[in-house]
Amino acid sequence: MARQEPRDGLERELERLDGAPYGRYRGLAGAWRLGAGRTLRLVRAQADPFAPPGRVALRIDGREAGFDPELWATPVRRRALAGYLVRCAAREARGERAYHLDAGGQEVLDRSSCTVGADGSVTLRLGVSLPGPRRRIDGREAWRLLGPGLTRLADRALRAGALEAARVREFVETVEDAAALRAALPGLGLVGFVADGALLPRRSGADDRPARGAGVVPFRSPEELRVTVTLPNAGEVTGMGVPEGVTLIVGGGFHGKSTLLRALEAGVWDHVPGDGRERVAARADTVKLRAEDGRRVERVDLHAFVDHLPGGADTTDFSTDNASGSTSQAASLCEAVEAGARVLLIDEDTAATNLMIRDARMQALVAKEREPLTPLVDSVRSLHRDHGVSTVLVMGGSGDYLDVADRVIMMDAYRPADATARAREVAAVPTGRRAEAESFPGVVHRRPDPASLDATARGRTRIRSRGTDYLVFGEHEVDLRAVEQLTDGPQVTGVGLAVELLVRRGHLDGRRTLAEALDLLEADLAGPEGVAALLSVHDEDFAVPRRYEVAAAVNRLRALRVLR
């Protein structure tokens, strides 16, 4: 189909429609010129004044935008530049209640709200509440919003000449350095890195900005763990390297154990300058796990952790609509490894105790033949040795993990120390505990039935988020509260769109495993289409997700059926 050429005369057309029934806004769908090098596309008009805002896309060609080609020379730099520009646009639009822009938070993600093309062009996508008093078109006000209003926004927020060049470059280079640091970790034998001087505490559970005040302790690596990395822009940076294998983070309560783990959890994303975690990175294949009472599990091989259930259920092909804390965490671990995770993060505060450990006294009291659970402490080394999966655990209450740890980091008043040597001295004193497993056998790859992943409700595709907690997918609501690396509502929407894309493009066809389908999805999202692949499904705000959160949503969809 030939591309539609932009039309002239939007102001004239809105004058003609002034006072017409509100529904006639829909006749304006398509592209309109807004001066040299600028195109406004009305993607979708509102059905009535009380419906969700209409969607528009404002495109500024590369020459008009005028950014130095170095700033958009690579996909990472284009993502970073778009992240800066959408934040500028959101600040500029703050006083205009009719504009609805997704600028994101502390993380810099691929967002549909702003993209930079390989030609330097900039496209801003936003919602616009089209005016309609008494359900009649207000042509003059509509033109103010769509014409002069968006032109002014573009002039002040989307053009190089209006922005402080040093700040633009700082933002782009900060993101580029973070991405380079993350990519370098496997080659350095590390699963994570925390730069000296990083600020890890956040203001509150509801405010992800860095904490401030005299009590905030900048991070400083112990000498035994300090490494130096060379970044494209910052040059040599020192910090703590978290090695592959089994790492324990220990220490007293309120001394920063979970804060460090949460920083690594967020290290799969790039952050804005000034966040405090700009140079905190975790490998891209890092997944945080926790217990999740009540979740559904569909045909997962759990026999590494759960065996000989009293009811005789087959744990090599286990399903339940109401998992316990231990079975849910075991399932989440197997599902994460199935999806390709090679680093697991676990905090004992949110873990199932009986899956984590069974100490010598409990072994003496309850015979193994009466206990179907095999604790993680007995297979965590095999996960790394036999399958290349490292684990970082926050542990304050179970010393049995000292027997299996490769490295122990002690947090004391937010200051880390290498306690590995002392931990080995402690572990040398026998406790009488016996290992209950010799190895982790691996995971069984499953083939989801694409017919069970239906995003339609009443004949229409229905995908939307309810914050970071729930994904509405067709007739179903997917509980994602335990998927802790999701950043915001638009990314949850992106997860739903990715699941729909897996089905729509035939990546999930009943023959491919979930991991194979996720490989194809990643190729789509990393290829020339990028964000446009998901825009083909949905024109609302979204952020591009990782494969691991997509897999988590598939596994938590209560309609899921798995073929064997």
From TrEMBL:
Signal peptide as annotated in the record: none
Annotated ranges, domain MRB1590-like C-terminal: 463-562
Domain of life: Bacteria
Stretches assigned to the ATPase of the ABC class N-terminal domain: 9-158
Residues annotated as domain ATPase of the ABC class C-terminal: 166-440
Protein name according to UniProt: ABC-ATPase domain-containing protein
Species annotation: Streptomyces carpaticus
